[in-house]
């Protein structure tokens, strides 16, 4: 907030404080408020719209026709005022009529006004009204004016709620009859099953006073609250119990960095200078953060903003003395935590013996809290819309993060079925655990290599838990995704060395950084600053690394130094043509020459490979094969490129089957094209982790798979029951003359031989 904004807001607040302290009735106060704001901002129009009976009603105005007061009404989402309330964001327009959502109301007499600015009046994260100003001359309002309006809107929210001028705060949440079972759908963030009672993470902090009596006293309250909050964060970071090392440590370090951010502290102090109490100042800055979050398309940057909001919530609870959270009060029963979003430190406060699962209204796969939850072994379901309108404190919940669903207030029959599935799941997990030391050998004596995909230090524990043959895909970009800045080479080296140490004599295939597409980094942007219409096929993976060769050089040297004295496996992602492999390997050769010159200890053997994700590469494998040691078919990207179907589009997610003859024939052609070359072929991706799809891959001649750790047991069990010669002959027949539904045909084939594929 600029010094001008602080002065303007303080001037308005001082006058509004006098208005609110007067004994006049609410309508009279609103009329005076409109006059004061219009006068202070030198604006010809100032209007206040409030939410009544689900509609935005003009309650007070300076400059518009007084006959329109309590007459002009519009729905949320209708016109500019309705748009502000719907999206809970600010509008600032030099020419209001040019906006596509502009709606002219003749009874207001607003036709002669051109400029328009409006801010939402927010109460408990809900827009309860809109404050707007207008001017005859076309102009955009200055930032100082917008900030003053936003601050005044906070004061208005207190006035109108206390006066009972708006719909009840619980309006639009629970319906009278919402007591029966309901199913929620969302996005799987961490897989798993859980049963427990709903516990709301955070009761809302009620701000009793908005306008400050003593600015210096409010500033001291904030200083003390910051000290206490930072002490809490430091203590929790030191008590994280995940063992030594792990990406979660980097997460918490970034989180601590936010807690000590001077810019955040300054903005809160400026809000206090404008005349707000400590609580209102924190809430004022927090509201602005939320508005910025709604404008951020970058999911990683949005996750960082969630961390900042988490800290703001913590600071607000401390300064207000309203410290009661579900964590501080303790969990008395097995619980499913309900929250709009969570920060990593807040999750760490919970008793892990009682915390069985988490359901979020927001959340994303790369968010900090998900990384920590995965390390804790807590299933998480995110992106559940209308969560707070369906779930109540104490409701029984069945969380099935595997299927991306949750059942609220389930019937006894549903509970019984879920418990049976849960018990069966535990039994099967126990059976799979018993296969840990069993090598996957088929009925006809052929050895199949089953490896795991990983990306975090914590994933390494799954090597010993599953008995996997190694790590067929280590996603190095995870370290980049959880970092606030580009990871330094020394830090990369330390991670890669730790991974190889943990793997022991088992191989680890390091995929060079695969960023771009849905894995964007806030600190690495396009040179032109523009977004991409089709990022999945754009500037990503090896294309980024070759253009930003400093990025690949640092990673190459880190991998070479970490692999000193061992066999190093390096894989390049999204190779479309052989020259791209040559260019990437040349970067490694250059770093290898440098390390030799420095007389550094080098890897004993370096095996280079590529991921086949781009179909074009299949047409040039004869040119590439002599140069590589292994090739991994990345079925996730390959499928979307082969079918021209965005895998993130829900309308297409289930449309193209991995058991389609098209994809199976393609993989068969790749396998056959490498006959006679000394190249190991593997499949990595979700396809290999599904038993029926894994059976098809075995029939195509695939003998190496890299899959999720949870899939290792089922695939091991599958391999032990299959005659690879038999499934190979059957697959050849099916692909020569495809049946109407290959999935059904294969399921029946497997069932007849006692092979479980569910």
What does this 3D model show about the protein?
It is a single chain. With 758 residues, this protein is an alpha/beta fold. Helices cover 44% and strands 16% of the residues. It contains 27 helices and 22 strands. The strands form three sheets. An eight-stranded mixed sheet has the order 7-14-13-9-10-11-12-8. Strands 15-16-17-18-19-20-21-22 form an eight-stranded parallel barrel, surrounded by four helices. Strands 3-2-1-6-5-4 form a six-stranded antiparallel sheet. Strand 18 (567-572), helix 20 (578-597) and strand 19 form a beta-alpha-beta unit. The longest helix is centred in the first third of the chain and has 25 residues, at 215-239. It is elongated and about 90 Å long. Pfam families: GAF, PEP-utilisers_N, PEP-utilizers, PEP-utilizers_C. It catalyses: L-histidyl-[protein] + phosphoenolpyruvate = N(pros)-phospho-L-histidyl-[protein] + pyruvate. Residues 25-170 form the GAF domain.
Mind sketching the topology for me?
Elements lengths: L2 H19 L4 H15 L4 E8 L2 E8 L10 E3 L3 H9 L3 E3 L21 E9 L2 E10 L7 H20 L19 E4 L1 E4 L2 E8 L14 H25 L7 H13 L2 H12 L4 H17 L4 H22 L5 H4 L5 E5 L4 H5 L6 E6 L7 H9 L3 E3 L4 H4 L5 E5 L4 E4 L3 H22 L15 E6 L6 H6 L4 E5 L1 H5 L7 H15 L4 E4 L30 H6 L1 H14 L4 E6 L5 H20 L7 E8 L8 H4 L5 E5 H9 L17 H13 L6 E5 L6 H9 L4 E4 L1 H13 L2 H13 L5 H11 L6
Parallel strand pairs: 9-10, 10-11, 11-12, 15-16, 15-22, 16-17, 17-18, 18-19, 19-20, 20-21, 21-22
Antiparallel strand pairs: 1-2, 1-6, 2-3, 4-5, 5-6, 7-14, 8-12, 9-13, 13-14
Helix pairs in contact: 1-2, 1-4, 5-6, 5-7, 5-9, 6-12, 7-8, 8-9, 14-25, 17-19, 19-20, 24-25, 24-26
Keywords: Cytoplasm, Kinase, Magnesium, Metal-binding, Phosphotransferase system, Sugar transport, Transferase, Transport
Main location: cytoplasm
Protein name: phosphoenolpyruvate--protein phosphotransferase
């Amino acid at each position: 907030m600029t010094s001008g904004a602080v002065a303007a807001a303080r001037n308005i607040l001082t006058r509004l404080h006098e208005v609110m302290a007067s004994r006049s009735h609410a309508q009279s106060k609103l009329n005076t408020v409109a006059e004061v704001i219009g006068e202070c901002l030198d604006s010809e129009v100032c209007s206040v719209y409030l939410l009544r009976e689900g509609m935005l009603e003009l309650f007070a105005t300076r400059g518009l026709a007084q006959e329109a007061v309590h007459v002009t009404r519009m729905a949320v989402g209708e016109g500019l005022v309705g748009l502000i309330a719907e999206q809970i964001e600010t509008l600032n327009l030099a020419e209001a009529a040019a906006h596509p959502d502009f709606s002219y109301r003749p009874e207001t007499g607003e036709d002669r006004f051109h400029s328009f600015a409006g801010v939402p009046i927010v109460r408990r994260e809900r827009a309860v009204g809109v404050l707007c100003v207008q001017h005859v001359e076309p102009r955009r309002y200055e930032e100082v004016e917008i900030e003053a309006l936003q601050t005044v809107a906070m004061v208005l929210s207190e006035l109108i709620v206390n006066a009972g001028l708006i719909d009840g705060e619980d309006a639009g949440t629970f319906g009278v009859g919402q007591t029966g079972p309901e199913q929620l759908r969302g996005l799987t963030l961490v897989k798993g099953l859980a049963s427990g009672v709903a516990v709301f993470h955070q009761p809302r902090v009620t701000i009793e006073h908005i306008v400050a009596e003593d600015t210096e006293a409010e500033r001291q309250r904030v200083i003390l609250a910051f000290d206490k909050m930072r002490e809490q964060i430091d203590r929790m970071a030191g008590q994280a119990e995940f063992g030594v090392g792990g990406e979660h440590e980097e997460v918490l370090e970034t989180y601590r960095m936010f807690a000590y951010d001077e810019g955040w502290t300054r903005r809160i102090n400026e809000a206090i200078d404008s005349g707000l109490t400590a609580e209102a100042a924190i809430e004022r800055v927090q509201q602005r953060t939320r508005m910025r979050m709604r404008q951020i398309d970058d999911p990683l940057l949005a996750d960082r903003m969630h961390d900042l909001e988490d800290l703001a919530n913590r600071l607000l609870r401390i300064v207000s003395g309203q410290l009661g959270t579900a964590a501080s009060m303790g969990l008395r029963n097995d619980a499913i935590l309900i929250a709009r979003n969570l920060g990593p430190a807040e999750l760490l406060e919970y008793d892990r013996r009682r915390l069985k699962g988490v359901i979020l209204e927001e959340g994303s796969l790369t968010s900090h809290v998900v990384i920590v939850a995965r390390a804790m072994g807590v299933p998480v379901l995110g992106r559940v819309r209308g969560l707070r309108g369906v779930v109540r404190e104490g409701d029984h919940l069945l969380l099935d993060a595997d299927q991306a669903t949750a059942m609220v207030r389930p019937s006894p029959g549903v509970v019984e079925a879920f418990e049976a599935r849960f018990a069966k799941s535990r039994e099967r997990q126990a059976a799979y655990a018993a296969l840990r030391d069993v090598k996957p050998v088929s009925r006809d004596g052929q050895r199949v290599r089953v490896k795991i995909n990983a990306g975090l230090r914590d994933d390494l524990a799954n090597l010993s838990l599953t008995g996997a043959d190694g790590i067929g895909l280590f996603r190095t970009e995870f370290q980049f995704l959880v970092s606030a800045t580009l990871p330094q080479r020394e830090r990369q080296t330390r991670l890669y060395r730790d991974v190889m140490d943990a793997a022991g004599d088992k191989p680890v295939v390091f995929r060079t950084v695969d960023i771009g597409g849905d894995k964007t980094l806030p600190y690495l942007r396009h040179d032109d600053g523009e977004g991409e219409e089709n990022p999945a096929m754009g500037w990503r993976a090896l294309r980024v690394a070759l253009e930003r060769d400093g990025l690949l050089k640092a990673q190459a040297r880190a991998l070479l130094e970490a692999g000193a004295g061992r066999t190093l496996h390096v894989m390049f992602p999204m190779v479309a043509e052989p020259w791209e492999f040559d260019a990437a390997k040349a970067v490694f050769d250059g770093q290898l020459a440098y390390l030799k010159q420095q007389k550094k200890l080098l890897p004993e053997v370096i095996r280079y490979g590529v991921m086949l994700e781009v179909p074009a590469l299949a047409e040039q494998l004869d040119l590439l094969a002599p140069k590589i040691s292994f090739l991994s078919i990345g079925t996730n990207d390959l499928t979307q490129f082969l079918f021209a179907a965005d895998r993130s589009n829900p309308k297409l997610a289930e449309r193209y089957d991995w058991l389609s003859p098209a994809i199976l024939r393609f993989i068969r052609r790749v396998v056959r094209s490498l006959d006679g070359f000394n190249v190991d072929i593997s499949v990595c991706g979700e396809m290999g982790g599904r038993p029926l799809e894994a059976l098809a891959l075995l029939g195509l001649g695939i003998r190496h798979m890299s899959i999720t750790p949870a899939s290792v047991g089922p695939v091991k069990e599958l391999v032990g029951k299959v005659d690879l010669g038999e499934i190979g002959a059957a697959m050849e027949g099916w692909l020569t003359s495809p049946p109407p539904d290959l999935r059904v045909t294969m399921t029946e084939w497997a069932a007849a031989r006692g092979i479980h594929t569910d």
